[in-house]
Write a structure and sequence with these properties.
heterodimer; A: 113 residues; six-stranded mixed beta sheet; four-stranded antiparallel beta sheet; globular; B: mainly beta; 11 strands
Chain lengths: 113, 114
Amino acid sequence: AQSVAQPEDQVNVAEGNPLTVKCTYSVSGNPYLFWYVQYPNRGLQFLLKYITGDNLVKGSYGFEAEFNKSQTSFHLKKPSALVSDSALYFCAVRGDSNYQLIWGAGTKLIIKP
Amino acid sequence: GAGVSQSPRYKVAKRGQDVALRCDPISGHVSLFWYQQALGQGPEFLTYFQNEAQLDKSGLPSDRFFAERPEGSVSTLKIQRTQQEDSAVYLCASSEHSSTDTQYFGPGTRLTVL
């Protein structure tokens, strides 16, 4: 069965410091991995995705994520956090034999000035 | 062009009422998805359309839930005889094709059943 785990309910980072939001997955076949961000009372906004190719994927707003096949991880990173990055972040995965996205429970990112 | 839009943004229903939630996908997008997001949780898949064909409805929680996309553009999610456990945010997403394309989400409809 496909699944996504975001082991941290909340991550606190000081502004200007690097941030990491963790995601691990389980899927049959090749994984397609996504990160979305959700601001209060707004829909999910796409940040980046991994389909194939380079393990390091660069996305919107300075975010990047590294695909690690052996560790089945797809952690979201940013070198220098901004207060405006504070939001709820979701990791999602689908296998190559279907189109359903399976979502993690989300990680609340709090950036303190 | 415009993104995915959903209406209404908020809906309050009395238990037992029927509700209809509308989704306008990005123009030209072939695929349309409905998700249910409970408070503090990630979205859960409800159903998927490719053009007007509903290819997967395995996520619909009961036969009270019904979705349609008759002309392959606008979609409506209908919930009959609403129950309190139906209270959630209902998200619609569209993608250009059906394979690995990114899904773009609307703002959601927050349904509260009293």
